[in-house]
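Student: Please help interpret what follows.
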Amino acid sequence: MFIYNIVKMHYALQIVAAVVVVFFTVKFLSVFRKRRKLSWIPSAPRLPIIGSLFEVGENSTEIITNFIRLTDNPAKSVYLEIGFDCGVVTRDHDLIEFVLNSTQLINKSWDYQMFHDWLGTGLVTSGGTKWKKRRRIITPAFHFSILIQFIESFDQNGKKLIEILSNEGTKPEGIDIYSYITNCALDIISESAMGVSVKSQENQNKEYVDGVKNLLSSILDRSFSLWKVNPYLFPLTSDYWYQRKIVKSLHRFTDTVIENRVKSLQEKTEKNVEQDVDDVGKKKKLAFLDLLLNSSIDGKPLTKEDIREEVDTFMFEGHDTTSFAISMGLYLLAKHPTVQTTTRNELNEIFGNDKSKPTTIEDLNNMKYLELVIKEIIRLYPSVPYILREITKDTEYKGHTLPKGTSIGMYIYGINRDPTYHKDPEAFIPERHLDTSSKNHFAYIPFSAGPRNCIGQKFAMLEMKSLISKILRNFELLPDPSYEPVLAMNAVFKTLNGVRIKLQKL
């Protein structure tokens, strides 16, 4: 019996060894095929097994400058291998235009799976038919007539922000403005997406607010670990269980909001109350959640999980991106007093000396120079530094082949600062956006472009105008001479040391 068990174990080990050999052989052949077909793109130096990991960088800060260095060649692109993963990073205008304009190359790469536990396969992370159907039903939520309903939310939350900054923000040593902006943006998007406020500025619902921040931080850390980024190995780490605990908490909060919203709509239906009018006859603001609750795909209503995916997606995309852009914008305005003065002069023409006057949609539309300023802010500091797409079948491009299974990383931060497309690219010059004659439209893509462009870009622009204008009407912005932002790159840009400026009450 003992000998029999030994023989059985021997054969089992042989089978395991054979499976491992086959697995690695298939992977190697796949990499070799892609490497051969992409030989027209300059390749980064690589080592066995780990590939170009050291060339890319070992953390989220190094990767920013390394991508610039690696794409500094005539092709403005680089072929990378890390382990058995192959991809291209590019800041070439024509290749970016080709990929982003395609109606076929719309699938996100596998990297976005790190968000699946939280966001599922919602609008940002899904692809193919599901993405097209979701985009179709969600697009009406960003119609102008819907967006103007949120102007009051921008204004009221901005007013609360000014009150807090007036009490806490005028310290001689300066403040981290990023934390204040993030709390305000969370309140705005929660009201817009879910119809309720998480009251982040009032330190309420801290479990949800802190959960969002901690989860994003953990995902950032995971993205730069060869061990954790592997979906098969990640469950063996403590971070996996840490993230799952946070996700459960976030989903519990969102589920409660959805259930309460459904119950409220049912009660109004039973009482024959108009659902778009409140108790005093005033037209009720419709949250994105209301649209989802009344939507269907192929004749079937969205499931609770479907709705939660999109609400959570809005909560993530709708606060993290604008928080970064607004904060970096205030940092740039503090460093460029002439631009700040010109912007404030425009605001004085619109509002006069009334600092408390509510902001209307007409006011926002009249902020022409501020719009140029914001466009320049998001050129220098795009909230999303790069976009990844997966090539789902061999695709011809300029006589070459983009092989199936390749990730194409379009380096927005890189092309937005490329001297080939932008004169004096490191300078903060809002007036450059007055010139619309350039044919290189895909050299400025802070909101992406093509079929998968940012669906919320109008919402974001209105929110940025509202909050930046309110701060400039109440404070003079001054730089902190000792501060320089330390950027970190993930699905969205971050700063590892906040965004420090000084505020002087006007």
